[in-house]
Write a structure and sequence with these properties.
The complex is a heterodimer of chains A (about 475) and B (about 500). By secondary structure, chain A is mainly alpha-helical. Chain A is about 70% helix and about 5% strand. Chain A has a domain of about 180 residues. Chain A has a two-stranded antiparallel ribbon. The radius of gyration of chain A is 21 Å and the shape is globular. Chain B has about 500 residues and is mostly helical. Chain B is about 75% helix and about 0% strand. Chain B contains 21 helices and two strands. In chain B, strands 1-2 form a two-stranded antiparallel sheet. Chain B is globular and about 75 Å long. Classes of the chains: A mainly alpha (about 475), B mainly alpha (about 500). Chains A and B meet through strand 1, helix 5, helix 6 and helix 7 of A and helix 18, helix 19 and helix 21 of B.
Chain lengths: ~475, ~500
Amino acid sequence: MLLTAIWLLPLAGGLLVMLLPHRFAKWLGALVGVGALGLAVYGAYAFDPAGHGYQFVERTPWIQQLGVDYYLGLDGISVWLVILNALISLIAILATPVDMRGAGRFVGLLLVMEAGMAGVFLAVNLLLFYVFWEAMLIPAYFLLWIWGEGPRPLYAALKFVLFTLSGSLLMLVGVIGEYVFTGGRTLNLPDLAAHPLDPAVQFGLFFLFAIAFAIKIPAFPMHGWLPDAYVSAPVPFLVAFAGVMGKTGAYAMLRILVPLFHHPVLWWDWNQVMPVLGVLGIIWGALMALAQRDVKRLVAYSSVSHMGFIVLGIFSFNAMGQQGAVLQMVNHGVIIPALFLLVAWIEVRTGTRDRAALFGLAARMPVLAGVFLLVTLAALGLPGLNSFVGEFMTLLGAWGLSPGLAIAAAIGLVLAPIYMLRLFQGAMYGDRTAAAGLLDLRGRELALLTPLLALMFGIGLYPYFLTRVMTSLGVPLPWS
Amino acid sequence: MVLIAAATAYAVNYSADQAWSDLQQISPIAIVVVALLVAMVLDLVLPRRAQGPVSAAITVIGLLGSLVAALALIDRGHTAYYQFAVADNFAVFFDVLFAVLGILAVAVSHAYLARRNFLQAEFYVLLLAATAGQMVIAQANSLVSIFLGLELLSIALYVMSGFARKDFRSQEAAVKYLLMGGFASAFVLYGMALVYGATGTTLIPAIAKSLGPGAGTNALLLLGILLMGVGFAFKVSAAPFQMWTPDVYEGAPMPVTAFMSVGTKAAAFAMIVRVFATGLPSLNGEWAALLAFVAAASLIVGNVAAIAQTSVKRLLAYSGIAQAGYVLVGVIAGGADGQASVLFYLAAYLVMNFGAFAIMVVLARPEGDRDRIGDLDGLVYRNPVLGVLMTVFMLSLAGFPPSVGFMGKFFLFAAGVHHGYTWLVILAVLMSVVSVYYYVRVVVHVWTPVDAAERRLRLPAAAGLAIVAAGVLSVALGIVPAALFGLAQAGAVPVAGVGGG
């Protein structure tokens, strides 16, 4: 029942929060969030690191006629993403201003979205996975639209929904295709993986699934919705949205594409195309980040670049690369929320997100500048901080696949310091000092970032704690 | 002389036991007809003030009785009246569907009729007549009885569409529906006549038996299929025969639109499955090709045209055209799974589509229906229950999990891919993305903040109950679809050799 509780608690709590008066909303929401985090941490604590395959398995028939089960499981990958989801969602709730318009509904929808994402990480049945995958879109749409900032929140929300939906409905055809071509008996992932299909069929199905996942990540060239959505998103939502939702796409690639479609070859080999797309994403995202003046947009494009490493790692088809990819999912989920929060706090204080209008802040807000530096260094992959390990492992994995790709991907590592440090230097130092009267980081804002900063150090210094349970990753399947 | 002799022979052989047994088989229809007669007679003797509530009560009691009678027939039905009628599980499934639809319609219309000062007893009598017609179609086992039900349903609906006698649009709708419906009926009848000419019988199972290997080249038969197909496509409002739908939906009073948007469509699908899948199984390739064209056209026309609508009635009319396209995917796929998915989706369509229309019924004012999309602005703040449920219905129609609309589409598409219509499924899926745009547009209006000037919307108890029930079912049947799908599977007509396994 643990796994059901992990997704059901936020869902029930979220619906309750929406019904109760707004005054209690944030704190009740936070309480639910803490409870969900507690359950997720307990799952990791009770997780047997030596065990292979799924643990805490829950399995009951759901649609008996089609052989579809309600089937949940936790393994060495999902265990970390479930915790990440619970932690980031809690931070998102805590970052919600109490006086926000309709705060109760906002927090409630955040919790519902957390439930959907938890379900995606836990589902072991393809149809169940699909239901969670689509269901998390509904709260995301409302959060993006009703509380959206900027001139056209509805446009951004609709663009996001239509983009992701065209992908995920094609995935529905893929789910059905997988079901029919494997003989129409089951949709449980382990059973499906045990019946590899004809390469030509795999080729078609791979496309139907991959397009949905690539849009969600978003991976190059499916990232068209991202700048609009990220810039328009209210920051507490963006924390969960950028921090966790993108990971559902990457997780799904590892969980579904890799084991189900080993050999998707007809006109070309998809498994050779994907790493190239990953590298293109790394370079394209970094170049676009270089060109941005809007800081939020800059961080958004840096996210595209980082997600490229994850795609590259997954499709390097060796344990090193895939472990690095999972580690990088967690790292990115820790760094990006911190960056967006800092950008939002700077905007609240200075009233602008324009890079050119920000200068000399360090003199007025030394603490914020220090924290910003730390997060910047983590984002650009300084050894000793978390991102370095993940990127290093992915590049090692990519080298095993193709040295050329690894070298090309490393260009991203060169560009990242340029756009990140340029941002940091320009905003914090520069030849002028910012106007007086700017408040430094407050205690509770710092407290909100503390767990993220601790994780940046923790994972950077002892990544083995995470990777040791990802034992059977790589060419063998996650559950074999 | 021969005819008279034959008639006498039948008359002699028709015992009281036989009559009783036959009557039992059509008891759901019979109970509705009895309620209809009672309501009609009481209408003459009761004082005007009592007419409305009494006929509403009689209608509900009759429909509940019909529902129970239908449930009692599960797994026990057989043919009756010299095979003219049948109470197999397929028919029972539709009987239950129509009885539930009728009850929901009464619950939703009651306050509406009073508010708009319509004649109440007459409305319920017509509603019962239409329901009886739908049930006759469901239980028909012969082309003749199908046509009988079709006309009973259609004539009642022609009158109901014009029920707002002083509303020009309503009158226009009635005339348009009468003319177009008359055309469609003529097409169906002509097609039936040709099929009869080609096969020598009107009994559907007998038609299936009479088809020889050469049936595919029999011009008479193929023309009959074509004409019937056109008529059926009219009735399910599938493209390219959908022109009447938006105008009639828009003009007819809102409860009538709600009733016929689900009822006519379900009845017409019962007809299509019965005649094509049961009667012409070996010509599967011919009629499936015809219907595949109709389905593709409906998906495109319905979804694209719905985008530009500013009237919720018209928007839902075009959405209904598109939804007919989705259901046709299941019909074309055929086989047990295809038919089960059709039945499941029609039940799903009942709760979600009727629910959406029912909310529009509640919005109506004494002077007329309020169906501009702007009339929905801020619904969630004026009445949170209605606002949230409208969102649920729209998301369900759009096919978002975990709603019943998603499960329905999943079953339909699964059957489609299974039987080799992947291209049609991909088209349906892409068109679903388009549909999200206009369904979400309704949701946007529901959640748009309005000035506090709009007063709180009062919800009549009966209508509220019906809407909440539809909303709960829209979600619950999506989360736990197995039970309904089991019933749908039980209701699928066993047809050998259709759809390629």
